[in-house]
Automatic annotation (TrEMBL), chain A:
GO biological process: cell division
Domain of life: Bacteria
Alphabetized InterPro entries for the sequence: AAA+_ATPase, ABC_transporter-like_ATP-bd, ABC_transporter-like_CS, ABC_transpr_LolD-like, Cell_div_FtsE, P-loop_NTPase
Organism (species): Sharpea azabuensis
Membrane topology: Peripheral membrane protein
ABC transporter domain ranges (all copies): 2-227
Lineage, top ranks: Bacteria, Bacillati, Bacillota, Erysipelotrichia, Erysipelotrichales
This protein's name: Cell division ATP-binding protein FtsE
Gene assigned in the entry: ftsE
Membrane-crossing residue ranges in chain numbering: none
SMART domains to which the protein is assigned, alphabetical: AAA (SM00382)
Alphabetized GO MF terms: ATP binding; ATP hydrolysis activity; transmembrane transporter activity
From TrEMBL, chain B:
Location(s) in or outside the cell: Cell membrane
PANTHER family for the chain: CELL DIVISION PROTEIN FTSX
Species per Swiss-Prot/TrEMBL record: Sharpea azabuensis
Record domain ABC3 transporter permease C-terminal: where: 180-301
Transmembrane segments: 32-52, 179-201, 221-243, 279-296
Ranges in a coiled coil: none
Source taxonomy: Bacteria, Bacillati, Bacillota, Erysipelotrichia, Erysipelotrichales
InterPro entries, sorted: ABC3_permease_C, FtsX, FtsX_ECD, FtsX_firmicutes-type
Family the UniProt entry places it in: Belongs to the ABC-4 integral membrane protein family. FtsX subfamily.
Membrane-related topology note: Multi-pass membrane protein
Protein name, as recorded: Cell division protein FtsX
Superkingdom, natural source: Bacteria
Length: 227, 302
């Protein structure tokens, strides 16, 4: 599903964020990406949803060479990928329902179908009763659920979560990870979680990739933070 | 497919644009106000420039060369001048006026007492025949006049001399200056609208980022902003158009009354007001569209 071949990314400022990285993530996998701040984790995921383009090497997502996608086609490519951020990034003036429906509206989904899909996804994240609430009326955990719902509502092949629990307390964090696990199992979506959270990585053991100084330090399916 | 989708989504995009104008109240209002001021200025300058142009053309058309024929010339000799005048380069039209006609004109221009006095000349007309020569381009007035002086039996040539040339030049400068000013103002409006829209868009960069994140195509993001720019331009044109409609009609009536009929005739308000209104609407909307297009582009770059 995701494949990197000798990928190097050097920013215009001269910062070498990734250095000759190669890895392979199969469809339906659940992967943690860990490592200290500034190690290149963010660059790694930005290359996946083509916010950035690799300086050298190749990045494949769903069999597509990301570098070869023309600028104007990027939006269509992004529909295959759901992204969740630490700060949720919800539209403050839209209700929960509208926020999720937004992702379908831009892809010209018929209204009836939008309603069906949004309801189904709200059920999946456990927020059926909050459809008409505004983001500021929700707790952090609930807002993150809405963000996840928006990310998965058009059935992407890959779900990328960038520090999804960064702003949440430990209990809520666990709920969010369990939700991501559920999405991974139910929808067979490939899930990539970038995180700092030791407890989570220790508790929910999955394949863990540690990035340090732009290189993959360890990559193990045993899981756990200290490996 | 893209076009069909675009048309299908058009009402939705329009609604988004109008809602956005409404929600960004103060910002939208300041943009509309900026457009209003500039369009007002453009309307005023264009009105003045077009009127100056009309007056200039009137004056230029009335500039002619007056040719007096020598009294000693016989009728045939006098008549022989006409083809020579017509043969000159740059001459548009030649009108003959016999010495009797000249006297009639002279008498008609006098007041009552003098009229009787001049009537005495009927028997022994001291005037000669005359020609009025129109030229194609007033700038060549003096050159043509000089050539006419050399024709046999021509006694005197009058055309206003160098002062006429100066007047023609001044009028031309006013016209060119007006045109440059209008172009400069259009550019100013473009930057003003672009800038205000840029501010409005910067305030909503997160919204654009999210739209891009969920896979909205560039045009899907761009169109509502462009429509917003167009609406701002259209709303900004309302006051200038109303002001033009009533202001110009009023000014026209007043000035025409003051000047009377003559050389200084102004452009009549209809259909002029409607034409200029159309131009203002197009200008506002067009500039809004283009300004928004360039402002959003920055946020869509990868």
């Amino acid at each position: 599903m995701i494949k990197l071949e000798n990928v190097t990314k050097v920013y215009k400022t001269g910062v070498r964020a990734l250095n000759d990285v190669s890895l392979d993530i199969a469809p339906g996998e659940f992967v943690y990406v860990i490592g200290p701040t500034g190690a290149g984790k963010s660059t790694f995921i930005k290359l996946l949803y083509r916010e950035e383009v690799a300086t050298s090497g190749k990045v494949f997502v769903d069999g597509q060479d990301v570098k070869k996608i023309k600028n104007w086609k990027v939006p269509y490519f992004r529909r295959k990928i759901g992204v969740v951020f630490q700060n949720y990034r919800l539209l403050p003036k839209k209700t929960v329902f509208e926020n999720i429906a937004f992702a379908l509206e831009v892809t010209d989904t018929p209204k009836v179908e939008i309603r069906k899909k949004v309801r189904r996804v709200l059920e999946l994240v456990g927020l059926e009763d909050k459809a008409n609430a505004f983001p500021h009326e929700l707790s952090g955990g609930q807002q993150q659920r809405v963000a996840i719902a928006r990310a998965i509502v058009n059935n992407p092949k890959v779900l990328i979560a960038d520090e999804p629990t960064g702003n949440l307390d430990p209990d809520t964090s666990k709920e969010i990870i369990e939700l991501l696990e559920k999405i991974n199992e139910v929808n067979k979506t490939t899930v990539l979680v970038v995180t700092h959270d030791r407890d989570i990585v220790q508790k929910y053991k999955k394949r863990t990739i540690r990035i340090e100084d732009g290189c993959i330090k360890t990559d193990t399916s045993l899981g756990g933070y200290n490996i | 497919m893209m076009i069909v989708r675009g048309i299908k989504n058009f009402p939705k995009h329009c609604k988004t644009a109008l809602v956005s104008i409404w929600r960004n109240g103060v910002m939208s209002f300041s943009s509309i106000f900026a457009v209003t001021i500039t369009l007002l200025l453009i309307a005023v300058v264009m009105t003045i420039a077009l009127n100056v142009n009309k007056i200039t053309v009137n004056i230029e058309n009335s500039l002619t060369i007056y040719v007096k024929v020598d009294r000693a010339a016989t009728a045939e000799q006098s008549k022989a001048i006409e083809p020579q005048l017509k043969a000159l380069k740059g001459v548009k039209d030649v009108k003959f006026s016999s010495k009797d006609q000249e006297l009639n004109k002279l008498i008609a221009s006098q007041d009552k007492n003098n009229k009787k006095l001049f009537e005495n000349y009927r028997n022994d007309n001291p005037l000669g025949d005359a020609y009025t020569v129109e030229v194609k381009d007033v700038k060549t007035l003096d050159k043509v006049a000089k050539k006419i002086e050399n024709i046999q039996y021509v006694n005197e040539v009058t055309y206003g001399g160098s002062s006429t040339n100066k007047l023609v030049k001044i009028l031309e400068n006013i016209r060119n200056g007006g045109a440059i000013f209008v172009v400069a103002l259009v550019i100013v409006v473009l930057f003003m609208i672009a800038n205000t829209i840029k501010m409005a868009i910067t305030a909503r960069s997160t919204e654009i980022a999210i739209m891009r994140m969920v896979g909205a195509s560039n045009w899907y993001i761009r169109i509502p902003f462009m429509l917003e720019g167009a609406f701002i331009g259209l709303f900004g044109a309302i006051i200038p158009i109303v002001a033009l409609r009533y202001g110009y009609t009023f000014a026209y009536e007043q000035l025409t009354q003051m000047m009377g009929a003559g050389l200084v005739a102004f452009v009549s308000p209809f259909p002029f007001v409607y034409q200029l209104s159309g131009i203002l609407l197009l200008l506002g909307a067009g500039v809004g569209l283009i300004g928004a297009f360039f402002s959003v582009r920055k946020f869509l770059k990868l």
